[in-house]
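User: Just a sanity check before I run the rest of the batch. Below are the structure tokens for the first item. I only need the designed sequence back.
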């Protein structure tokens, strides 16, 4: 019996399990390791922060998906890896040998220690966001009071602007009588530097409408972040600490170097996809790439187990970004084209729900479409 080990409940592994469900490979067992059974889908995280969705509505249920595919889910975390012995050690102390290993563990951030009286919410890893948000919302200083609530976000990319707008909507709807101030701090000289110029203008307009002050060309020092009650940390993605010593070929930034078949260039029995992997030319750390790698990974794992022919992954040159502005509207960016409005939000909502529906193996009932924008109190 061969063993395929899938580490991480990332977007591509969901696709592997879905294909396995339809056609399992005989003589092979699949074990999935994830810290939790529910894996949030990144595209809907800002909508959840804003209160448009419940947490379970933005998640892929890996427990159900693994069970339907005949795979075993271990609620655990990879702690270290010995690729020469083909063995992983989990946080619980369990050691697992494997024939093929696939890593889809996303990325992380190293936010600063909070100053006294300040809370820090790190936007990565996504799997830890729920507990972190619950801690923020149950903090008496943030959840009630007469003083203005000051929220600052660090990072001028999509995650920074979306999470700030969403968090402001959340607090303003939960505490309608309280002043909630927003500030966006970015080291860069423009917002959304990788997107269409029209999208950057639209996001500036949305931030202005939400009363956010934008500070560009500003590093986040203690003084820049001083005086805020909640700091949203959304800077560039970083590799997990354990990757540094894992013995696999790494890029300068510590991500796992993969070839066109999504195999690690130093250990061909190890595959890596999504944020944790580094392509020959580094790709943006965006969920769309992890999603597009899914079918190729699924095919290549099956090919490796059955002596088949692998397929080459070819990244798209442009990708569609749909950013929620948390006011019932969204902004679209594709190459130099951009658009904005309520219809973009409805389009985004439709795409995101349809994506999750592909993995809803146990409860395939479609979610009701929102007729108006629900707020946190409506969806609790
Ligand atoms: C606020 C926000 C909004 C975003 N919006 C978008 C968007 O609209 N569109 C877009 O394309 N991108 C978006 N992104 C980027 C996107 O989040 C990432 O690029 C995407 O999630 C990467 O997917 P992945 O499959 O590589 O990993 P992830 O989706 O991060 O999944 C990794 C999984 O691995 C698990 N894991 C981590 N460490 C371990 C371990 N040691 N052992 C076992 N399991 C582990 C995690 O719990 C998680 O389940 C957004 C990011 C943020 C922060």
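Assistant: Here's the designed sequence for the first item:
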């Amino acid at each position: 019996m061969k063993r395929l080990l899938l580490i991480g409940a990332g977007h591509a592994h969901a696709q592997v399990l879905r294909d396995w469900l339809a056609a399992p490979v005989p003589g092979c067992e699949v074990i999935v390791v994830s810290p939790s059974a529910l894996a949030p889908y990144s595209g809907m995280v800002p909508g959840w922060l804003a209160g448009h969705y419940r947490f379970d509505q933005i998640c892929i249920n890996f427990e159900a998906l693994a069970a339907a595919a005949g795979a075993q889910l271990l609620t655990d975390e990879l702690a270290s890896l010995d690729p020469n012995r083909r063995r992983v050690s989990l946080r619980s102390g369990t050691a697992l040998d494997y024939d093929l290993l696939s890593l889809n563990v996303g990325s992380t951030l190293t936010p600063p220690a909070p100053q006294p009286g300040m809370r820090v919410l790190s936007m990565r890893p996504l799997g830890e966001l729920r507990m972190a948000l619950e801690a923020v919302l149950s903090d008496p200083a943030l959840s009630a009071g007469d003083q203005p609530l000051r929220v600052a976000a660090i990072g001028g990319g999509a995650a920074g602007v979306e999470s700030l707008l969403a968090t402001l909507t959340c607090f303003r709807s939960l505490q309608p009588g309280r002043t909630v101030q927003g500030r966006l701090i970015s080291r860069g000289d423009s917002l959304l530097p990788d997107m269409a110029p029209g999208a950057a203008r639209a996001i500036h307009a949305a931030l202005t409408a939400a009363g956010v002050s934008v500070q560009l060309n500003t590093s986040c020092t203690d003084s820049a972040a001083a005086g805020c009650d909640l700091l949203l940390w959304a800077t560039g993605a970083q590799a997990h600490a354990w990757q540094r010593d894992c013995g696999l070929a790494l890029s300068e930034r510590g991500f796992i170097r993969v070839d066109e078949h999504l195999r690690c260039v130093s250990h061909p029995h190890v595959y890596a996809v999504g944020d944790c992997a580094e392509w020959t030319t580094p790709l943006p750390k965006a969920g769309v790439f992890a999603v597009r790698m899914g079918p190729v990974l699924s095919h290549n794992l099956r090919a490796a187990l059955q002596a088949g022919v692998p397929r080459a992954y070819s990244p798209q040159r442009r990708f569609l970004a749909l950013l929620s502005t948390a006011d019932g509207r969204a902004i679209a960016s594709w190459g130099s084209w951009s658009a904005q409005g309520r219809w973009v939000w409805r389009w985004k909502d439709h795409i995101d729900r349809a994506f999750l529906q592909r993995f809803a193996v146990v409860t395939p009932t479609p979610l009701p479409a929102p007729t108006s924008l629900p707020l946190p109190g409506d969806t609790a």
